[in-house]
């Protein structure tokens, strides 16, 4: 059973300009595993975090660091959740997540399906 679906799109150049204007924002949004990725990968992970929140009903109490999208070469992307995000997933009965990331033409996109 599908518990929720989330999609988000990020303009890479605009996103990176925002990070450049607010250097602490990178630390607020991303875990240590994610922070030093290429701009397109960073924007895709931000889109993924937004899409995950949307799939979980977008409650306002989710913490950015409670989701990590590590880089896994040669395999589909994975979602690692802890704390507030894991608790919300459990509350909704979401036990499996499907994530698709893409970036092309200056745009990063993420789609998430939460399955119960």
Notes on the protein architecture:
This protein is an alpha+beta fold. The chain has a single domain (2-115), classed as Alpha-Beta Complex (Ribosomal Protein L22, Chain A). It has helices at 12-21, 23-29, 39-55, 83-92, and strands spanning 2-11, 67-68, 80-81, 96-104, 107-115. Helix 1 (12-21) packs across helix 2 (23-29). The model has no long low-confidence stretch (mean pLDDT 95). Belongs to the P-Pant transferase superfamily. AcpS family. One of its GO terms (cellular component) is cytoplasm. Keywords: Cytoplasm, Fatty acid biosynthesis, Fatty acid metabolism, Lipid biosynthesis, Lipid metabolism, Magnesium, Metal-binding, Transferase.
The CATH homology group name: 4'-phosphopantetheinyl transferase domain
Rg of Cα set: 13 Å
CATH architecture: Alpha-Beta Complex
The main sheet orders its strands as: 1-5-4
The average pLDDT is 95
Poorly predicted parts: none
* Termini separation: 5 Å
Structural class: alpha+beta
Q: Estimate the strand proportion.
A: 25-35%
What oligomeric state do the depicted chains represent? single chain
**Count of discrete structural domains:** 1
Helix fraction, binned, reads 25-40%
Pfam family, one: ACPS
Cofactor: Mg(2+)
Binding site for Mg(2+): 8, 50
Subcellular location: Cytoplasm
Describe what is shown at a glance.
By secondary structure, this protein is of the alpha+beta class.
């Amino acid at each position: 059973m599908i518990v929720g679906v989330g999609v988000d799109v990020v303009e890479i150049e605009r996103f990176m300009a925002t990070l450049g204007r607010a250097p602490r924002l990178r630390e607020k949004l991303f875990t240590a595993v994610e922070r030093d990725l290429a701009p397109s990968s960073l924007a895709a992970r931000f889109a993924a975090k937004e899409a995950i929140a949307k799939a979980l009903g977008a409650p306002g109490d989710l913490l950015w660091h409670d989701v990590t999208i590590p880089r896994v070469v040669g395999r589909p992307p994975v979602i690692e959740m802890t704390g507030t995000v894991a608790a919300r997933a459990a509350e909704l009965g979401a036990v499996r997540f499907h994530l698709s990331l893409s970036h092309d033409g200056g745009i990063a996109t993420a789609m998430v399906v939460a399955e119960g």
